[in-house]
């Protein structure tokens, strides 16, 4: 008789987007869509809809730490997704607690700018991300502008430039242990779509099919959350990390394709996280 698989507990440490398309609420939907139990630690509150971010409010640092410590002291956490962290102080303290708990499968989405163009990470926090957070990260999932900021160069504009950027990004992560870069090419000019997955050894090209829609609010959040939910469940498979990323991307593609079934807001609408569940 086979033993039932263990349901992973996954936490997102990120911001809240009240419209539910991005941030913690979207992450919880992505966890749930992938058979993981979702927890959430609030690193920032935003006032936001599908068109704009109109305000940001961050919790006192002591309270942020209390949320993490209270959760981790009780719940076995199998993977962590990091999203909007806002300030250097928040970045430092999240990294500090993750190191303390030796957190596994930390997927760091280095959120800097919202789809609406609003800034979500203080400029002086980038150095702290590199110094404190990347050493704790199992995988980073920057988009092209974020890759440019992390590397202090202009954003890659072609697949060839993405190769070089993925190699340089991998050098920002600890070299002696298993670490991954997922460089997302959603911002490539023209119709081309390509993500690159790199562990320092093998470059995996993940070509995509661009769907013509404005409903791409939270695509990056949802993808990194799905990957965090799948990583603990993929262990034991052939090339588990690659399998988790491929599965998450296929799911996201269908979630973008089904986004038209939802009617949420007048701007960049959310993707349909439960397209496979809500049969109509
Ligand atoms: N129009 C599209 N059609 C299909 N796939 C897309 C589309 N736009 C983005 N993707 C895919 O969605 C994922 C997220 O990529 P993207 O580069 O948009 O992330 P992001 O900029 O971090 O998103 P966000 O604005 O939500 O933070 C990638 O796998 C990318 O290839
Ligand atoms: Mg993003």
Model description:
The protein is built from 8 helices and 9 strands. The protein has a 9-stranded mixed sheet with strand order 3-2-1-4-5-6-7-8-9, sandwiched between helices. Helix 2 runs parallel beside helix 3. The mean pLDDT is 95. The chain has a single domain (9-261), classed as 3-Layer(aba) Sandwich (UDP-N-acetylmuramoyl-L-alanine:D-glutamate ligase). The protein is an alpha/beta fold and 280 residues long. Bound molecules: adenosine-5'-triphosphate (ATP) and magnesium ion (MG).
Concise overview:
By secondary structure, this protein is an alpha/beta fold. It has 8 helices and 9 strands.
Task: Give the tags.
9 strands; binds adenosine-5'-triphosphate; 280 residues; binds magnesium ion; UDP-N-acetylmuramoyl-L-alanine:D-glutamate ligase; nine-stranded mixed β-sheet
């Amino acid at each position: 008789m086979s033993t039932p698989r263990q349901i992973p507990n996954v936490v997102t440490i990120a911001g809240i987007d009240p419209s539910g398309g991005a941030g913690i609420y979207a992450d919880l939907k992505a966890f749930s869509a992938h058979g993981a139990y979702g927890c959430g630690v609030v690193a920032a509150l935003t006032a936001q809809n599908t068109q704009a971010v109109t305000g940001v409010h961050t919790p006192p640092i002591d309270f942020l730490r209390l949320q993490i410590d209270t959760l981790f002291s009780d719940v076995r956490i199998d993977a962590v997704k990091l999203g909007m962290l806002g300030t250097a102080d928040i970045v430092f303290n999240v990294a500090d607690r993750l190191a303390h708990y030796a957190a596994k499968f930390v997927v760091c989405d280095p959120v800097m700018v919202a789809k609406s163009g609003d800034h979500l990470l203080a400029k002086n926090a980038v150095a702290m991300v590199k110094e404190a957070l990347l050493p704790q990260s199992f995988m980073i999932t920057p988009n092209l502008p974020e890759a440019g900021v992390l590397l202090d160069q202009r954003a890659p504009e072609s697949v060839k430039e993405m190769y070089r950027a993925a190699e340089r990004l991998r050098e920002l992560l600890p070299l002696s242990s298993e670490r991954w870069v997922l460089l997302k090419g959603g911002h490539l000019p023209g119709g081309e779509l390509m993500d690159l997955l790199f562990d320092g050894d093998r470059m995996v090209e993940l070509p995509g099919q661009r769907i013509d829609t404005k409903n791409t609010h939270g695509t990056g959040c949802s993808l990194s959350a799905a990957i965090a939910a799948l990583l603990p469940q993929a262990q034991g498979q052939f090339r588990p990390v690659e399998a988790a990323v491929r599965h998450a991307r296929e799911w996201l593609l269908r979630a973008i394709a089904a986004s038209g079934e939802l009617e949420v807001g007048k701007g960049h609408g959310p993707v349909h996280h439960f397209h496979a569940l809500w049969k109509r």
